[in-house]
Amino acid sequence: MPLPSPFKIALLSCGLLLSACSASEPQEALPPEVGIVVLKAESAVMTSELPGRIVAVETSEVRPQVDGVIRRMMFEEGAFVRAGQVLYQIEDAPYRAALANAQGRLARAEAAINATRLQAERYRDLVEINAVSRQEADDAEAAAAQARADVTAQRAAVEAAKVNLGFTRVRAPISGQIGRSLFTRGALAQAGQTEPLATIRRTDTVYVDMAQSASEILDIRDAMGTGGLSRSAEGARVTLLLPNGKAYPLEGRLKFSEITADPETGAVTLRATFPNPDGELLPGLYVRTKLIDGVRQQAILAPQQGIFRDERGRAHALVIGKDNKVEQRIVTAGSAIGNRWVITGGLHEGDKLIVEGRQRASLGETVRPKILQLSSKKTTAAEASQASGK
After folding, report:
1. CATH code 2.40.50.100 region(s) in the chain
2. What are 12-62's pLDDT values in tens digits?
3. Phi, psi for 323 (deg, rounded to 5)
4. What is the residue range of the signal peptide feature (predicted)?
5. Number of neighbouring beta carbons within 10 Å of residue 353
6. CATH code, 35-55+203-387
7. pTM over 0.90
8. Could you tell me the CA-to-CA distances from 307 to 7, 121, 190, 366 in Å, in that order?
9. DSSP line for 199-268
């Protein structure tokens, strides 16, 4: 076998050397990939979640107006009663006797008025012929006037006796659902007692009293004044979340807000009305409410996974700037709408917000952005109701 020529040996050596050199050179690493969303300005329905308490639109404590023993209870506990319906019958024998006595005194006063009137007329004629003295005539006139006044007083006494007799039948002041009776048959009822006989509440419609901080109310008014927030076309609507987590199916309407703030808490009471045809909303029940404040125009909504906070609680975001380099922004995050924050400062339309791969993105370094197709539907008033569970 012939040996290789020196020229071939040299070529083979050069090839091996070049292969070793190319294998030892490191390949250039690609920038890390991150997921981004391009922020857009859109209109958003702004809501406030507030604690609330249900209050009956009318509440009346049934109390006796006269003293006496309760002889009959003429209603069923928990039933619906109508205004004027008799609820209790108090022993009325003493009051019937008092009425008869007053009527007798009135009859006697009416009988006396004729005698005194006739005597005054006779004395008036006799004094002209000096048959009686002027003093006697004046006394007769005074007696007649006193008799007339006594009739008026006795008529008032008869009316008072009739009123007291009527009070022995305790009636419902309002229509509504009556609770349990705190007094039974045979119990002594007294006018002015501290404890009511029963309580009636009208609950076909109820109030929901909510507490909102005065600062939030001022912010909303300022936003409306500057045009950043406009009143929703549907009006100030309110939805409810019951204590068991169930959404109440009917909407309410904001009725009014208190004109003063609580000096201790700085909160202002808002009141909404809700229909309650099935009696599901019980007075005294605590609920969560969602109040539609208005529509914010040109709002920046950032996905919550793109916003993080430092140890001081300040909100930050990472965005892609010039030449695909990572930048950090301090942002102002307002309320949440679904899974997005309303950004009121720090981010603008067109910013490329990093929402995935943030741990691979170092400040000032170049990254490879990948646009993610996250939900970017506009938040409407209907969606706000659905978010509340409706």
Report:
1. 64-91+168-195
2. 554 544 454 444 455 567 888 989 899 988 887 777 788 999 999 999 999
3. 60, 30
4. 1-23
5. 23
6. 2.40.30.170
7. no
8. 68, 104, 66, 20
9. EEEEEEEEEEEEEEEHHHHHHHHHHHHHTSEE--TT-SEEEEE-TTSPBPSS-EEEEEE-SS--TTT-EE
